[in-house]
């Protein structure tokens, strides 16, 4: 292989969430935002950034998960009390988190979602089931009409995580899942028919959750994610082989 080719890197396109995090990083590093300072309200931030509030909310959620922000229901969201140097390094890690290794992220999602499905089957409520069913109905309606159901797909998986009643599991899902599902769908990693094929798989997951069967829920989720999981394993093996060839 031409060694020149090995030096070429794919062009990275930043998401709105990455851009928000990067701007917040700059405000912190420059000293305009200091540890302990309160951030403006989500609505005001969304207006200033020129994006929807959902992007601001996702950015804040990621930064909260990493301990860089803390939110009080009564008084708002604050920059954590960590030093500027630590904040700078951690913010860089958050920005790069979803870009480092697609195959590793897929693998992490696979094992996380299996655990989430199992716990959700044990703890879900009737209200949870109603939310999941609504998300699935909307997903199927879109897909059956030839539309992109990526947001409804994402919502279904998030509703399962919420049914665990474990906010850490839900936060981990919200960090891993959005960028992955969007990337998989936009790049048609699993082919053109993946949306249609997902319908009976989603229904099998929902049925196991309805029956409060953790083993069946975990198995149904594994079947649903198996195709993309095998693609990631093949990609990991190819990467390992390439590294050996270049040694």
UniProtKB/TrEMBL annotation:
Keyword DNA-binding on entry: yes
InterPro entries registered for this protein in UniProt: GntR_C, TF_FadR/GntR_C, Tscrpt_reg_HTH_GntR, WH-like_DNA-bd_sf, WH_DNA-bd_sf
GO MF terms, alphabetically ordered: DNA binding; DNA-binding transcription factor activity
Pfam families: FCD (PF07729), GntR (PF00392)
Residue ranges the record marks as coiled coil: none
Keywords for the protein's UniProt record, in alphabetical order: DNA-binding, Transcription, Transcription regulation
Domain of life from the UniProt record: Bacteria
Keyword Lipid biosynthesis: no
Domain HTH gntR-type: 14-82
Protein name per UniProt: GntR family transcriptional regulator
Organism, scientific name: Pararcticibacter amylolyticus
Lineage: Bacteria, Pseudomonadati, Bacteroidota, Sphingobacteriia, Sphingobacteriales
